[in-house]
Write a structure and sequence with these properties.
By secondary structure, the chain is α+β, with helices and mostly antiparallel strands. The chain has four domains: 129 residues, no CATH class; 122 residues, Beta-Lactamase, CATH 3.30.450.40; 77 residues; 145 residues, Histidine kinase-like ATPase, C-terminal domain (Heat Shock Protein 90). Helices cover 55% and strands 14% of the residues. The protein contains twelve helices and twelve strands.
């Protein structure tokens, strides 16, 4: 319908140009004997100028030739004839034609530039309104609805496809009511992977989108905007291509903003949840350690009371004491982990031999390691290391205790120490089932254990505490499987120990 009206207006402009020339002739003809010929020429040139400004280049050129013909026919002797009595009028006709054509060209060009400026102003205004509306969008559905309403005013069909990842061949999340065919989806993937606009002119009118515009954001391509014309008018879509590219750029920027806003909200929630968890762990640990200490003391008192209690009561008191000790140890680990995660760990480091840590750890775990074959392999010339003895003893104890938990009775447990370049390396290995391959990367996370349904008691905090302590010392810790068992290795930087002062000879 719009194309038919444009054709009618195009034809009507030429009729108006003819009418203007005829009106000028009819209005001037009664004054033919009163007006100078030059003045009549100026009136016809004015008509050409008006036609150029109002009707465009084509009608103004028609008005130029028609004005020359009417001037010759009605105002040049002999009248009502195209013959010329004076040859000088040929110069007048040539000048009139040249001035008319030049005037029509300049005036039409000025009118076209004015219309182009108005069109750019309209595009700028509507793009500003679109950017304002998109700036308030808080979800992908809102972005799609705003874009669809905006381009719907231009009689365009819109489908927004958002890439679920940045890799080639990724799936797209379609936002819109229209379902794309397999052919259209191929065009979408091609536009996304090539980062270029794809047009399908030959498929217009077949229910297939005409233009596929990649949503090129500053960091990556966020998706594709598929645009079609319900009427199949390819030329109208092509004429709007600069506007469509600007719309695609705005949509891409908004999608990137929503992506990073969602990532920021997710990170903020994670930080808040971590702070809340640390706060709860710290509070519980502090509040429960006092009554547990009382339970341990009372149970010890019951076992030592005089006269002694019956054998069954003494055994029950011992169980209460052991369970209270275990709970106290668990709460101590929770409190220590909360302090480490909050960044409040303070290292009391000194230069000291690693052998002392091995000796104290094996003495503390003498009862646990009694039924295993403990092998210690460490050179006698290890240098002094700069560490916190209490915390590093916790690391070695946790590793030895874990190795014992997941080893059969009588199995061999190895503790080795070596110098590896600029680092000191220690490892604790056992004979057992090893770590599950699919979970080996998560064993150092809090509350994660080496088995899906472990048969031995534990909380999943031992390795997490080891990692926090080793990391605070500037070292690294890894878990790995070996034939017939598993190993946990940690490293510490060697540094430069101070020179040993020789004792003065007496």
């Amino acid at each position: 319908m719009q194309t038919e009206l444009s054709i009618r207006w195009h034809r009507f402009r030429y009729l108006l140009a003819v009418a203007l020339c005829l009106l000028t002739t009819l209005g001037t003809l009664p004054f033919r004997d009163l007006l100078n010929v030059a003045n009549i020429v100026m009136l016809f040139l004015l008509t050409v100028f008006v036609a150029a400004v109002w009707l465009g280049r084509g009608p103004s050129i028609l008005a130029t030739f028609l004005s020359v013909a009417l001037f010759d026919f009605f105002f040049v002797l002999p009248h009502l004839s195209f013959e010329v009595a004076d040859v000088q009028y040929l110069v007048t006709f040539a000048v009139m034609l040249a001035v008319g054509l030049t005037t029509s060209h300049l005036a039409a060009r000025l009118a076209e530039q004015t219309e182009e400026a108005r069109a750019r102003e309209r595009d700028t205004r509507v793009l500003y309104e679109l950017a304002r509306d998109l700036g308030g969008a808080m979800s992908l559905d809102q972005v799609a609805d705003i874009t669809r309403r905006f381009l719907g005013k231009l009689n365009l069909d819109v489908t927004l496809l958002i890439a679920e990842s940045s890799v080639a061949g990724s799936a797209f999340h379609q936002v819109g009511k229209r379902h794309l065919s397999e052919l259209e989806q191929n065009f979408v993937r091609s536009a996304y992977e090539r980062h270029t606009i794809i047009e399908t002119d030959s498929l217009a009118g077949m229910g297939v989108a005409i233009v596929f515009l990649p949503l090129n954001a500053p960091t990556q391509v966020r998706g594709v905007l598929a645009i079609g014309s319900p009427t199949g008018d390819v030329d109208s879509v092509r004429s709007l291509r600069p506007l469509l590219e600007a719309v695609a750029s705005l949509v891409a920027i908004i999608l990137e903003r929503l992506h990073y806003a969602d990532a920021a909200r997710h990170s903020e929630l994670q930080v808040t949840a971590e702070r809340l968890r640390t706060s709860i762990l710290s509070s519980l640990s502090h509040d429960l350690r006092t009554p547990l200490t009382s339970l341990v003391g009372l149970s010890d008192s019951l076992t030592q009371i005089q006269p002694p209690l019956p054998e069954g009561a003494i055994e029950t008191a011992g169980i209460i004491r052991d369970q209270a000790h275990a709970m106290y140890h668990l709460l101590s680990n929770l409190l220590e982990m909360a302090r480490m995660q909050a960044g409040k760990i303070t290292l009391n480091r000194e230069w000291q031999p690693f052998e002392e840590i091995v000796g104290s750890s094996t003495r503390l775990l003498a009862g646990v390691l009694a039924s295993y074959q403990l092998e210690i392999d460490a050179p006698t010339d290890l240098p002094l290391l700069y560490f916190d003895a209490v915390l590093l003893e916790r690391v070695v104890c946790n590793l030895l205790e874990n190795a014992a938990k997941y080893s059969p009775d009588g199995a061999r447990i190895q503790l080795t120490a070596r110098i590896r370049g600029p680092f000191f390396e220690a490892a604790v290995c056992n004979e057992g089932p090893g770590f599950p391959e699919e979970r080996i990367a998560q064993v150092f996370d809090l509350f994660v254990r080496g088995e899906r349904e472990p048969a031995v008691a534990g909380t999943g905090m031992g390795l997490a505490i080891c990692k926090a302590i080793v990391t605070a010392h500037g070292g690294t810790i890894v878990a790995e499987n070996r034939p017939g068992g598993a190993c946990v290795r940690f490293t510490l930087p060697l540094g430069s120990p101070p020179p040993m002062e020789e004792e003065a000879q007496t």
